[in-house]
Amino acid sequence: MSRPHFDPSRYDAQLAEKKTRLAALLAPFAAPEPEVFDSPREHYRLRAEFRLWREGEERHYAMFEPGDKSRPILLDDFPVASEHINRLMPQLKAGWQASQALGFKLFQVEFLTTLAGDALITLAYHRPLDEAWQVAAEQLAAELGVSIVGRSRGQRLVIGRDYVEEELTVAGRRFRYRQPEGAFTQPNGAVCEKMLNWAFEALGPREDDLLELYCGNGNFTLPLATRVRRVLATEISKTSVSAALANLADNGVDNVALVRLSSEELTQALNEVRPFRRLAGIDLKGYDFGSVFVDPPRAGMDPDTCELTRRFSRILYISCNPETLAANIAQLGDTHRISRCALFDQFPYTHHMEAGVLLERR
């Protein structure tokens, strides 16, 4: 992650440019004007990763411009990161400078925080971690009030928990989430909460069932499950599946069946191309799917998965890459129309943006 060019005075103009770009991408599909959900102007990133750069006997937090690893940008703070990360940065630096056990061959630091006030720090090393490291890390974790994960080749030592706990409010209800170290989570918590509320409203109350692809740790699953009769959710990452199951249990959501299948595999199962033992006990034909929710990776949906979504009356699509979103909509345009669309500014001061569309059968 390179350092964003942080200039709050330019924020409104940059957001307007993104809206114009999204509207142009969706114009061929007669999309309505995008709803726009802005970001806090600073302290919006809940996670941050830094390399360490040595000058003399001291190591500094460092970032680099893309493609240039020779000229570091040395940091004492990071205004786009959460206030919690900014408080921890100097405290952690003092900790590794004061302890040979913590500082020796430390080369990378990752922070993961939440709106709920939780924090986890990952320390990566070019050496094995020993008992001295464990003792020093336990003391530092207690002093900072955080969990710590130490990583080196073939090692992963956890002080405290290997996840953080988040709380997000959707339609007046608070949902609790476990967000594991090393797994994907939305970096901008305030905008994530806006996305969840938009998706909740766009789906609306239904009397039928929902299919969810790429469910991750259940970020959208929890609130959307309260809008439908039942949910069948899929995810391929074991870590995310484990977190999603814990999140469902923690929130008392009991109308979701979660299976560890890729979208391609689920397409094969629904098309009766091949059976899967991971679907044992799940009656696919017993579902009355009216809607499908997808939040795919940057590459978007593959053509077969895109064809699968065509079967549904409503396609609720969250995208981190509007270009691949537009390509998927082009494949679906003869059967579905865009009834709502939205821009979520997850990544201020960059060209990246998150988008949402509701596609309904013509």
From TrEMBL:
It holds the Pfam family tRNA_U5-meth_tr. It comes from the Bacteria. S-adenosyl-L-methionine binds at Q186, Y214, N219, E235, D295. It catalyses: uridine(54) in tRNA + S-adenosyl-L-methionine = 5-methyluridine(54) in tRNA + S-adenosyl-L-homocysteine + H(+); uridine(341) in tmRNA + S-adenosyl-L-methionine = 5-methyluridine(341) in tmRNA + S-adenosyl-L-homocysteine + H(+). One of its GO terms (biological process) is methylation. It is an enzyme of class 2 (transferase). SUPFAM superfamilies: S-adenosyl-L-methionine-dependent methyltransferases. Keywords: Methyltransferase, S-adenosyl-L-methionine, Transferase, tRNA processing. The active site is at C320, E354. Its EC number is 2.1.1.35. The keyword tRNA processing applies. One of its GO terms (molecular function) is tRNA (uracil(54)-C5)-methyltransferase activity, S-adenosyl methionine-dependent. Belongs to the class I-like SAM-binding methyltransferase superfamily. RNA M5U methyltransferase family. TrmA subfamily. HAMAP family: RNA_methyltr_TrmA. Dual-specificity methyltransferase that catalyzes the formation of 5-methyluridine at position 54 (m5U54) in all tRNAs, and that of position 341 (m5U341) in tmRNA (transfer-mRNA). This is tRNA/tmRNA (uracil-C(5))-methyltransferase. It comes from Azotobacter bryophylli. The gene is trmA.
